[in-house]
C-alpha cells in the first residue's frame, strides 16, 4: 500500500537529543547555569530562533545564548560528526521496508537544513528520503504545521493520509494541526494525556512502527 511518511530527525532517526542535552549540561556546569535540563526540554521540537526566545524568557534578555549554543554545538560535533551519531533502534529496517512498499518519505526537522542533510548523509540514510526540509526553511516553527505541510506538498501527498513520526510534544501538535496522522515514539519525554489524544498511536520504538505499517 503506497503511503507518505514524514520523519522528524532528532530523537526519531538519531538518538541525538540526549547527546545534545549532555553537551548543554557540560556547558551549564562550566558557566554555573541553573536549570538547563528543564530549559532544554522546553525547546524540544522547535527551531533555533524559538529556542533563543525560550532561553531569553528563562534567563533574561542579556543571556548570551548564542555563545553558549556555539560551545555546546562544537562539543557535540567534535564527538559525533563523521557518522558517529547513534541511530535509533529499528530506523534502517523501517526505512528499507517503507521504500520496498514504494512509500514517499520525507524528513521535516527543526534543525537547520544544512545540518539535517549532513547528518543524514554521514549516517548513510540520506538516499532513503525524497524530500528533506530543515527548520530554517519555514517562518513558523513547530507546533505550527508549516514544515509538515511544506514536506507534504513537495512529496505530492495528501495531508489527511500522510503519517508523521515524532518524539516531541510540539511535533505531535504540529502534525495534528496539519491534519496528518501523528505517531509518537517517545524519546526524552513521555506522552501526556493531551498528546495521547492528539496522536493516532504511541509506540515504544520504531520496531513497533514497522509492525504497525506491516498490518496496514
**CATH topology label of the largest domain:** Rossmann fold
> Tell me, what is the CATH class of the largest domain?
Alpha Beta
CATH-defined superfamily of the largest domain: HAD superfamily/HAD-like
Percentage beta strand:
5-15%
The total count of strands amounts to 6
Major sheet details: 6 strands, parallel
How many domains is the backbone divided into? 2
Structural class by helix and strand composition? alpha/beta
CATH architecture of the largest domain: 3-Layer(aba) Sandwich
Unreliable sequence segments? none
What is the distance, rounded to the nearest whole angstrom, between the alpha carbons of the first and last residues? 7 Å
Arithmetic mean pLDDT: 96
The largest sheet has its strands arranged as 3-2-1-4-5-6
Shape: globular
H/E element sequence: EHHHHHEHEHEHEHEH
**Fraction in helix:** 40-55%
> What's the Cα radius of gyration?
17 Å
Number of helices: 10
